Amino acid sequence: MRPGLLLLSALMFALAVPAAHAATANETQALYFGQWYVNGNTGVYTITVNADGSYNHSGNLTMLRAPRPGVYNVTGLTPDATITNVTVMQTQAMQRGGNDPLAMSVFDVVAPPVVSPAGNATVTVGGTASTTGSGAGYGPGDYNGNLVIQFDLNL
Length: 155
Hints:
The chain is mainly beta and 155 residues long. Mean pLDDT is 86; it is low at 1-5 and 11-15. The strands form two sheets. Strands 2, 4, 5, 7, 9 and 10 form a six-stranded antiparallel β-sheet that branches. Strands 6-3-1-11-8 form a five-stranded mixed β-sheet, with no helix packed on it. Helices cover 0% and strands 58% of the residues. It contains no helices and eleven strands. The radius of gyration is 17 Å and the shape is elongated.
């Protein structure tokens, strides 16, 4: 077991909307879980970033750089449609080489209630990253993962 220094960020690569519409997510600010020193990976430790920018953590983690929520401007949606739900799902855990992954879950999403007349919506995303607790160390470096944002629209 060795302690490790890690940088955590999530990249948005996919977007799901009704099939008749081609939407694009432009990353204004990536969901970033911060930079942390992991003092042993002997338990499942968490870092939670809320959509409002607040954050907290558990376990043997020492923060070196603060986390921040992701901000995504989505274009190509149906103008003036009501947004009934926005779901964020992990498609790939945050990884770096052969190190243990960090799972992302419990996403906090803030979105407008209605798509703009131009077909745009800005979405702010927070979430929780969790260590494995396997006892294996986390090597230094960037850990990146993938998420998908799904919009449910009332046309």
